[in-house]
Amino acid sequence: MIRALRISDEQATSRDVPIGCNSRGLGDTLVVTKLDRLGRSVTDLNAIVTELDMKGARLIYGGQVYSPGDPSSKMFFTVLGAMAEFEAALTRARTREGVAIAKEQGRMTGRKPKLTALQHERILKDYESGEFGAVKLMELYGLSRSAVYAALVRAREQRDAPPTPRSATTRS
After folding, report:
1. Is the distance from CB of 28 to CB of 4 less than 8 angstroms?
2. What is the pLDDT of residues 21-43, one digit of tens each?
3. What's the sign of the alpha-carbon dihedral 141, 143, 145, 149?
4. Is 119 exposed, middle or buried (0-12, 13-18, 19+ CB in 10 A)?
5. DSSP letters along 105-163, please?
6. How do residues 95-115 score in pLDDT, each as one tens digit?
7. N or C: which end of the chain has fewer CB within 10 A?
8. Are 17 and 11 in contact (CB under 8 A)?
9. Are 163 and 135 in contact (CB under 8 A)?
10. Is-above-0.70 flag for pTM?
């Protein structure tokens, strides 16, 4: 019996894939369009294929049926798995490199903070004085309840952090 099992990128890079394979049994067929969707490395792929083979399930990848008993099929599967692993590693390396360059050039600054440092101080002062509760602070600052409490935590951390030494500058 052939069943459709969609595996997302996130699942392909997590340990959830073998769980999807657990439902496979005798006579079932797992069809995968790309091997990198099935496992992160050749080792992962071999473990998953071994598990499928022990359960009597078949694997079809890229239109080919994998036959663990056939040496040429096993070699071809391993080579394709190694290429998929290599391609994923190259993509990760390029992504890291691109992010580093973007950060260097100041293009990746992230989301702008909703509150300024002064507002953080003020929200903490208002809350700790008992003048305003969380609900009132939500209204005043336009924040959600969780954002108010996160801002309070951040403000306390800033207040309680040891002062950072300023670099000494010499004047000529």
Report:
1. no
2. 555 567 788 888 887 788 888 88
3. negative
4. middle
5. TT----SPPSS-HHHHHHHHHHHHTTSS-HHHHHHHHT--HHHHHHHHHHHHHHHHSPP
6. 999 999 998 888 877 788 788
7. C
8. yes
9. no
10. no
